[in-house]
Amino acid sequence: MNILPETFVEIEQVYQVIANENIKSLAVNCSQGKEGATELVLALARRHKVAGSKVLIVDLNTFKPAITNEYIKGKQSWSLDDADSQTACITPFSDMIDILPAPQSEQDQNISFRDEKNLKNAIQFWRQHYNFIIFDTCAITRTNFSNIPGEVIARGCDASLFVVAPGVSLESNVLKAIKIFKYNNVKLLGTVINDVNCPPLDMQFRNSVRRRLKRFPIFKQWLLNRISSVELLKGKFGR
Q1: Largest CA distance in the chain
Q2: What are residue 26's DSSP bridge partners?
Q3: Whole-number mean pLDDT of the chain?
Q4: Where do the DSSP E strands lie in the chain?
Q5: Measuring CA to CA, how many Å separate 99 from each of 2, 7, 57, 80, 86?
Q6: Bridge-based pairing state of the strands 91-94 and 188-193
Q7: Sorting pLDDT into bands at 50, 70 and 90, what band is 110?
């Protein structure tokens, strides 16, 4: 799992939107998976910690529970309507951050996780102990009985962030996810563009120049300056 530093300017921009909207429970969603949603969950949790908030990360990505597998080493048995089981499964991640790992995939439990009222009651209980609750969720288009629908989690939270990765996310899946959000009346706080696999042209050009013109430092710097002056290459238009 890639570690996304909470000090990135982009993370700060997302954090400020969350703070300005007074969001206390947030679902981080994606359309198909491998789009960087889990990394964003961890970065935002650490950013809230820096601000003095006590944070609970809830891993409800039963399809691919990356946080649970990386830091807890396995799913655990708990349900939304049993506060004692939740408390027993909560595991410290770092100072001011705890993790509630992905639940076991028994069918009866997964049905209970689809109940919006149960989720809201659980969030209300967690808010007694935490300033901010953030959810890692299943990809919206990963629909099967063993997965907890990401849109259900998003609907039960104050808001949702939607992660899209150019070069990874299929347009058809992104459009399908947006349609599902609208149908479920999800409050979409915004869309986070993860362009790590598809960086702006200026970055690609600069990397190429640095690699190929090491023996010509003066010309290299002149060309780097020229590239930096072309706004169109920065990928800011239409984003």
Answers
A1: 68
A2: 134, 159
A3: 90
A4: 25-30, 55-60, 91-94, 97-100, 132-137, 159-164, 188-193
A5: 18, 21, 5, 15, 10
A6: unpaired
A7: low
Give the bridge partners for 30, in sequence order.
Answer: 163
CA dist 168 → 33, 173, 189, 197, 203 (Å): 9, 11, 22, 8, 19
- Measure the CA–CA gap between 99 and 134, rounded to whole angstroms: 10
Q: What is the pLDDT of residue 239?
A: 38
Q: Position 166: which residue type?
A: P
CB-based contact 233:205 (threshold 8 Å): yes
Kindly report the pTM of this predicted structure. Answer: 0.84
Helix (H/G/I), strand (E/B), else coil: 193: strand
**How far, in Å, CA of 228 to CA of 165, rounded?**
24
